Amino acid sequence: MKLNLTLLLLAAGVLGGSVFVYAQSQATAPKLHVDAFTSRGQGVVMSADSIDRDESTIRLKGNVEIQLRPLNPDGDVMVLHADEAEYRKQGDEILPRGNVRVTLEKPR
Questions:
Q1: What are 28-42's pLDDT values in tens digits?
Q2: How far from 79 is each of 16, 43, 66, 72, 96, CA to CA, in Å?
Q3: Which of 47, 58, 104, 107 could cross-link with 53 by S-S, CB 3.0 to 4.6 Å?
Q4: Smallest Cα–Cα separation from 51: which of 39, 66, 41?
Q5: pLDDT tens digits for 58-79?
Q6: Is the pLDDT of residue 102 over 70?
Q7: pTM for the complete prediction?
């Protein structure tokens, strides 16, 4: 199933900018994280059990969570959960697969 989140991300701006990968320790296996920023400076935090990337695509597998942080600190965070997802930088597309859920949450 291809889900193009371009409409959801339209208000947030175009995804892009610097990307950083790091691991965070937890009681279970470490979950990997990728931080990115939209052209408007909005934070995008992607995490999964496995992350593979090249120049144009970031592939996330296992317990995927993608958070789109609001520019306004009081705004809601859009959170996408999926079994797998692929982020294509050139098309500004997030293609989630498996069990997919999108929620709006208060900032933590």
A1: 667 899 987 766 677
A2: 18, 12, 6, 16, 12
A3: 58
A4: 66
A5: 999 999 999 988 888 889 999 9
A6: yes
A7: 0.69
Amino acid at 44: V
What is the C-alpha end-to-end distance of the chain, expressed in Å?
30
Q: What is the DSSP string of the chain?
A: ----THHHHHTT--EEEEEEEEEE--SSSPEEEEEEEETTS-EEEEEESEEEE-SSEEEEEEEEEEEE--SSTTSPEEEEEEEEEEEETTTTEEEEESS-EEEEE---
Structure tokens at 24: 């965070």
